[in-house]
Amino acid sequence: MALLQEWLANTRKLSASPSWVRSLSKAGYRVAWGNYERARELFEDALEKARKAGALEDPESRDTLSISFYNLACVYSLASAGKRYTRAKPSPVLEGEAKILRAKALDALERSLDLGYREFGHIRGDSDLSPIHATTEFVALLAKYEKK
Fold it and tell me: pTM for the whole thing?
């Protein structure tokens, strides 16, 4: 929750496009409320708007975007385990779909790391990422960025 509060504080500081900033805020609130499925849609939309606005190259936006990609990785990871809402029991996910969602989680995590997110202890201990923790791709990804 502290990470979410930090992320929300950073979104308020940005001087970038209001449309993508508002979308990121809405996504963050959906995570806080436990609606991961809707949060995933909003993060995807907001990050695409940010890309089109050139925010990925803006140094002022890096912290907020790195945390946003991290949160997107979390919701993809949760979805791969059938977790779509905080209060609901996980629903069955076909292995093919779960594999795609884990790959998207790893991709979003790498984007987060590319943008400077370096809370490796948090990443390893975050239960939202537990569906990808044991993958060889996760281990290799962290090893790659810990060397930087």
Answer: 0.85
